[in-house]
Design goal:
Organism: Soonwooa buanensis
Distance between the termini: 35 Å
Strand order of the largest sheet: 1-2-3-4-5-6-7-8
Strand content: over 45%
Number of strands: 8
CATH class: Mainly Beta
Helix content: 10-25%
Number of domains: 1
Oligomer: single chain
Pfam family, one: DUF2147
Keywords: Signal
Protein name: DUF2147 domain-containing protein
CATH architecture: Beta Barrel
Length: 139
């Protein structure tokens, strides 16, 4: 009986952790290929996923988001919520937005997990018009 309980617990924990995006992720600069920042993704009480800049690895030209047009305008990039309102839909996290603090532009966002990597897609309109970044899990 103990073997069955242990097997059930192992399967349950594995299923719960499958396709979870919560945690700290290293972002990579598209132009230089160097690590740019750590973004911490977390789930709020509304059941949606959000991500904030936990650490800057490259000093930005401007430490504030001067290009932002919403409540983040002029706020520091460090600590800024750059991902907002993602919902889990099967193996995807979608329905939210991602903001590029470099220029303040906000895009629709879809995230899929591939092992210790996230494929983060920002796009306007339809998903075909956009770009995907690969973020790496930080231990």
């Amino acid at each position: 009986m103990k073997k069955y309980m242990l097997a059930f617990a192992t399967i349950f924990i594995s299923a719960m952790s499958f396709a979870q995006i919560e945690g700290k992720w290293k972002t990579i600069d598209d132009e230089t290929g160097k690590a740019k920042s750590y973004v911490e993704i977390f789930k709020k009480s509304d059941g949606k996923y959000y991500g904030k800049v936990a650490q800057l690895l490259i000093k930005p030209t401007d430490p504030n988001c001067t290009g932002c047009k919403d409540d983040r305008k002029g706020k520091p990039i460090l600590g800024m919520e750059v991902i907002r309102g993602l919902s889990k839909d099967g193996n995807e996290f979608t329905g939210g937005t991602i903001t590029d603090p470099k220029n303040g532009k906000t895009y629709k966002c879809t995230i899929t997990k591939d092992g210790d990597k996230l494929n983060v897609r920002g796009y306007m309109g339809i998903s075909l018009i956009g770009r995907t970044q690969t973020w790496h899990k930080v231990d």
